[in-house]
Every structure is written in C-alpha cells, then in structure tokens.
Design a protein that fits this description.
- With 233 residues, this protein is an alpha+beta fold.
- The protein has two domains: 172 residues, no CATH class; 46 residues, no CATH class.
- The protein contains six helices and ten strands.
- A hairpin with a 4-residue loop joins strand 7 and strand 8.
- Helix 2 crosses helix 3.
- The longest helix is centred in the C-terminal third of the chain and has 13 residues.
- It is globular, with a radius of gyration of 20 Å.
- The two termini are 19 Å apart.
C-alpha cells in the first residue's frame, strides 16, 4: 500500500517475535490499562466515569481488526478500537477478555479496524510526540488523513440561576489534513480556501465542486475532492 506509513526517516523495530505465538506478541504492548486509575485521575466517581467513558472513543466497541508491519499482515482477527483521548489503539487477546492493552506505537505498524485504516505518524522525529491518523484517501501524490481528538471537560457547577450545571464529558473534534510526502496541511472547510490550497488545478477543482455539488462539511465529499485533485496530477 503506497505511502501508508511514512517510515523513511525512522528506525525499524524488529517484530520477528510476532511469529513466536500470542504470548510473545502480547508482550509488545504497553502495560494493561487500569480503568479504576482512569476515573480516579479525573476526580470522578466510578458511576460518573462509566457514564461518559464511551465518548472517548470513535467507536467504543471492540471490532475485529488486522495489524500490519509495513505491507505484511502480522496478526489477524484482533479485537481493537481507537481511543481518541489517549491516542491509542486498544487491543484484546480475545473478544471475551475483560482486560485490554495498548498497541505499541511504531511508524512501521498500522492497523485496519474493519474498513478504517490507522497509521502512527511521529512528530519531528519523535514517536512520543506522534499520533494516530485515519487514512481516508491514499493517492499517488496527495493523501487525506483524519485526526479525531477527545478532550476531557470537567463538570461545572452553575454559579448563578441563569447558568446550568455542566456534567463531565469527553468532547471530540475532527481535523482533516492534505498530506504530501510527510507534510500535513490542514484541510479548510470553505470552498475559497480549498481552491487556494489546490491552486495548481484551480479551474478544474472549481468546476468539479460545482458539477458535483460538493459540500466540504461532508467527509465523503472531502474524499471525492481530494481523490479527484490527486487524479489531475
């Protein structure tokens, strides 16, 4: 798969241990996530945390997925989900397990959760500062990536009769990026700014937007537009 991981500048971590069985493979993951520590760290009661914890995920359900090292499938049928708050791929050994861990963060490893592809991209050469992105379009020149982030909002007590109490929550935001050779440009939502971004094919893009009634508030239309732009190059 072309450019699915931008690994040229990063050292490869050997994953030959994957062939040695599930026990060795599982050892590559971070320590098991303790949910009790999670809700206590937010200053919430267990019931409060349980009421909002699903909001931290793009999809709170564990879905069967695949783990790849570069283009090689190294593990299939792995229950996994993306935690947008912790920016981690959480995995289980088996669907029936109550416990789960976080997949090791490495730019040479990507996952496919049902139809969604997640890649890990370092930031300024640092894995620690890097993060996961959902690949929406994989073109010959330009790709379209999506970043979903969840932020914890503390509960607020109304100070006046005109205000309302606000319960704790995880608020999610989504940002789209046009990616070329490891360079990320935030994708604007206005047509005029998009035309400026795609200036080298401005007339064709303008005609395509008009003909296809492209609405950049819709993810599907973003994918169509970036795929078309890439096809012109």
């Amino acid at each position: 798969m072309k450019k699915i991981i931008t690994t040229g500048l990063f050292a490869l971590v050997s994953l030959s241990v994957f062939s040695q069985g599930d026990a060795a493979w599982y050892a590559l993951n971070n320590s098991n996530i303790d949910l009790q520590q999670k809700w206590e760290s937010f200053g919430l009661g267990e019931a409060q945390f349980n009421a909002i914890k699903d909001e931290a995920y793009v999809n709170p359900n564990f879905v069967q997925g695949k783990i790849f090292q570069e283009t090689k499938l190294i593990k299939d049928e792995v229950p996994m989900r993306y935690n947008a708050y912790a920016d981690e791929i959480e995995i289980k050994k088996n669907t029936s397990d109550d416990s789960f861990s976080a997949l090791i963060k490495d730019p040479n490893i990507f996952v496919k959760i049902f139809k969604d592809i997640y890649v890990f991209v370092p930031y300024q050469g640092s894995n620690e500062k890097g993060g996961y992105f959902n690949v929406l379009s994989d073109g010959k020149t330009y790709d379209l990536y999506k970043k979903t982030t969840a932020v914890f909002r503390e509960p607020r007590i109304a100070k006046t009769s005109y205000e309302r109490d606000s319960p704790p929550s995880f608020d999610k935001t989504t940002t789209y990026y046009l990616v070329q050779n490891g360079t990320f440009l935030e994708m604007p939502s206005s047509n005029s700014k998009v035309l400026k971004m795609m200036d080298k094919k401005k007339s064709e893009i303008k005609a395509f937007i008009k003909k296809n009634d492209i609405n950049l508030d819709k993810e599907a239309d973003k994918i169509k537009l970036v795929s078309y732009f890439d096809s012109l190059l």
